[in-house]
Amino acid sequence: MISLPLSWNKVQKLALAGILPLLIWPSASLASEQVVIASTGGAYDRALKAAWFDPFTKATGIEVVTVVATNAEMRAKVAAMVKTGNVTWDLYLDGEIQAASKAHKAVTEDLTGFCKQFAGRKDLGANACAAGGALLQSTATLLAYRTGDTAKPVPQTWADMWDSKAFPGERAFPNFDDPWRVMAAALLADGVGREELFPLDVERALRKLDEIRPSVSVWWKTGDQSVQGFRNGDYSVGQIWLTRAKAMQNEGLPIGWSYKASFLVGDRIALVRGARNRENALKLMAFWLNSPEAQAKACEVLSCTPPSTEAIALMSEDVRKTMPHADEVRDYMVVPDAEWINANAAQLLQRWNEWLR
Amino acid sequence: MSGLSEVSQAVSARQPRSTVASARFYSRGVSVCLAAPLVAALVIGFVYPVTRLVALSFSGGSLEHYRRLVAEPLYLGVLASTVKVAFIVTIASLLLGFPVAYLMARLRHGVAMVVAACVFIPLWTSVLVRSYAWVVLLQRNGIVNGLLADVGITDGPLKLIYTEGAVIVAMTHVLMPFMILPIYSTLRTLPPDYIRAARNLGAGACRAFISVTLPLSLPGIFAGSVLCFVLALGFYITPALVGGPGSMLMATLIGQQTTVLLDWPFAAALSTVLLAVTLIFVFLFRKTLSLSKGLHSVH
User: Fold this and answer.
1) C-beta atoms of A177 and B78 within 8 A
2) Which CATH entry fits the domain spanning B65-297: 1.10.10.10, 3.90.1150.10, 1.10.3720.10, 3.90.1210.10?
3) Which ranges constitute the DSSP H helices of A88-150?
4) What angle, 0 to 180 degrees and rounded to 10, lies between the N-to-C axes of helices A345-356 and A180-189?
């Protein structure tokens, strides 16, 4: 008789051992509590994980699963999920302005009820928790420039950016399908006051932009591109994100910026309509707003302004020095009119495309 | 001896018949079964979504989106420049690709493999990587500007990147393998005897090429041109990376509507128009090329 190396019994056992985990695994992962959040990935994601997700998991036992996508992809994907009724994300990050749009309201849950618990908090501003989402952080889009000779004056206002005699060199402006901030800068340079800025006079803005167009060497589409141009010397003055300007300064590049020419922008955490782990998602959002330590730790790395004033107090002196001061925010920073921008987004973009091409 | 010739005659007589008959070996039922998986995949993965897309563009049973598309000069203008760029890229790929394909078909096997590798390796590289390579080459302090300045042709750096020219160069580079490979496969099957016969009859090298090789390679040229043109019409990544504001293409506008404004019905209308234009051009290509004799052998 030929003896098989494995008896039939053994084979059965092995097969069972192989199949069993497969059967158990999905139910096990369902049983453990989790929450799925989409963010833009990279350094941003790492900072949020270290400061926010990991301490949250430690405190509650709820696992935080992150998904990476660009902001535009997130918006399109969430819209598709809600439309098809197959919602696999619970939370996602979106810009302050988009979070106030009709399209955003159609696919996310109104958080007015959730926000009531933060009403009495002194350290949180009135907009820290809004119907469209909880505030993650604020930052700015502003005028940044290459510093060189310390004796020379530096550009301070948008009018300076348009003044190519006093401040020679080429310019950079963003072109990432969100043209209000370029038009707004043009109007401010043309002498429009901060209070009368919105609704934007688009035609006047484009006329003013015609003046500077020949000096614009790059219309940047991604944050990386805006940084690369400063590194290469493609331009010496540009409208870019504060986070990127700070990153360049950290690299040792001679970069300065002016809050006198700046727009306040932020990111919000939004709850997808029909989220499977709704309760966990609300817990994760509340955890962020309730822990100044987490906010301080994340914003220390990302150079952002946290929603809680207590968090600002926890941050290092170095970082606080470069953050916009309260009086600068009060006197110069422009808070965009999200409602007007959203209502006119399609027209703005169409007119912008026509002008640009 | 006579037996042998009989056999060879029988073989040569049977050969063509068997190749002709091979399609008839299968009964209708088997043929349907064999084709069914592909047809199913096409219906589920292509026909259904495209139908939904077209239906979405008429959402609400109105032509509102198409009216907007025609009324605003932006959209038809961008469509025209998209077609223009696709044409230039196709012509450039043909002019640069044909000699390479010809060379590959004529070279000894070993050398031809090296040339083929030079064509294939870029094809296997991500479009993103190839496009970024052009950014590195063409930027202000890039290799091309450095070279031009060193040779003394230019005084200052030229603006090469973020222009329509950069888009055309980078797209040609990305799409060239799609032109070379179909032409190569046609030239490869072209018996050298035909050219020898032409030369024997007194044609010069040029004449033999123009009256024999070129017409017979038209099927490959057609296939390559259609591939390049259709792919170029829908290009998204490369223009976004190396193009500037002046090189706005249709795919960019569709992307804006899909992801920024979430106006999917209008995005669907733009896509439908692009699809229709693509089909019209493919049809026109066929019509033009079928006027020549070379295309009679293809279907």
Assistant:
1) no
2) 1.10.3720.10
3) 102-107, 112-115
4) 70
Residue where the block lists tokens 């060189």: A148
Residue numbers in B near A73 (CB within 8 A): 259
- Taking contacts as CB-CB distances below 8 angstroms, the residues of chain B near A219 are 162, 244-245
Q: Given this model, what pLDDT does residue A141 score? A: 93
Q: Is A217 on the interface with B (CB under 8 A)?
A: yes
Q: How far apart are CA A82 and CA A92, in angstroms?
A: 13
List of E strands, chain A: 34-39, 63-68, 91-95, 129-130, 133-146, 171-174, 216-220, 237-241, 255-271
Which of A11-29 are b and which e, b meaning 16 or more Cβ less than 10 Å from the residue's Cβ? eeeeeeeeeeeeeeeeeee
pLDDT of residue A28: 43
DSSP codes of every residue in A290-312: H-HHHHHHHHHHHT-B-SBHHHH
Q: Looking at this protein, which amino acid is placed at residue B59?
A: S
Q: Output the pLDDT for position B62.
A: 83
Q: pLDDT band at residue B54, thresholds of 50, 70 and 90? A: very high
Model confidence at B59, pLDDT cuts 50, 70, 90, reads confident
pTM of the model: 0.81
Which residues of chain A carry a pLDDT beneath 50? 1-6, 21, 23-29, 31
Q: Which of A102, A349, A351 to mutate to test the interface with B (most CBs of B within 10 A)?
A: A349
In chain B, where are the structural domains located?
26-57, 65-297
pLDDT in tens, B125-173: 888 888 888 988 988 878 888 888 888 887 777 888 888 899 999 999 9
% of chain B residues with pLDDT over 90? 44
| Domains of chain A, CATH where assigned | 33-138+266-324 (3.40.190.10), 139-265+337-356 (3.40.190.10)
State whether A73 and B259 contact (CB < 8 Å).
yes
Classify the C-alpha dihedral A274-A277-A279-A284 as positive or negative: negative
Contact state of B159 with A73 under an 8 Å Cβ cutoff: no
Q: How far is the CA of A341 from the CAs of A101, A267, A274, A337, B148, in angstroms?
A: 9, 16, 27, 6, 45
- Helix axis angle, B64-71 relative to B264-290, nearest 10°? 70
